[in-house]
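Quick note —
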Amino acid sequence: MNIKIGTRGSKLALAQTNSVIESLKKSAPEITAEICVIKTSGDVMQDVSLLQIGGQGAFVKEIEEALLTGAIDLAVHSMKDVPGEIPEGLQFAAILKREDVRDVLVSRGRIKMEFMPKGAKIGTGSLRRGAQIKAILPDIEIVPLRGNIDTRLKKIETENLTGVILAAAGMKRLGYVQTITQFLPVELMLPAVGQGALGLQVRKTDRDLAGILSKLDHAPTAVEVAAERSYLRALGGGCRLPIAAYGLIEAQRLTLQGLVAAPNGTHVIRDKVWGGLSEAEELGQKLALMMMEKGGKKLLDLMC
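Predicted structure written out below.
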């Protein structure tokens, strides 16, 4: 069986897709794969903020359209880029084992976050990261940043930044660990929904392919991500508000942490719930309700 795999063209996206192909060769040697690079809105329009081109979903919309039309058979997505709702007719056949969920700091002179001077310029294109940094270091200046990992790292010099915040998963997948100044603990910087996880998306009608891909599914990661995405959907999905969540299974118990914040970091709401592994959907909804009652609804009404 020959399949066409759709992905973005960045170095990281191609590395992730090639890792999926290697895993497929081991579990389903009868499959041959062809990579189809698809330019998304997020890739093409790099001179504007993601909010101006639709926010979450800017990196997946065109790939999902190619899947729906039959131009490709499989899409490889970073789950943090996928909106809470996906198009009718598509499904995730597998969620792969998660990489490191944390964010990292890469800084000039290897200055750690706790030693940042007043007025330091930190680059990030993420409202979630910016809000959490401002909450703990209000004197920091957040500089909007777009582009792939290499571009962002270069901007430390070209934009005279003190540092940039990136996802640990991407840095590890590209072999850039040696450039990391500091891994930021989730207690300090709660990750994006689905951060560190890859999803394999197919058409619902492609049952044979879905069955083959299901061998690559990592059940614990799938449960954790399902809880996070349930939380995201319950808060309104693509809202233009800093939203974070982190599900973690330990000793057969699922803990879900969540965060909603004002973009400037002046108001941060954070809480957590826990329960059984079969309660992922319910826990996401429960946590979202708790957050709304603690002031999240007021923030959502103001920003969404």
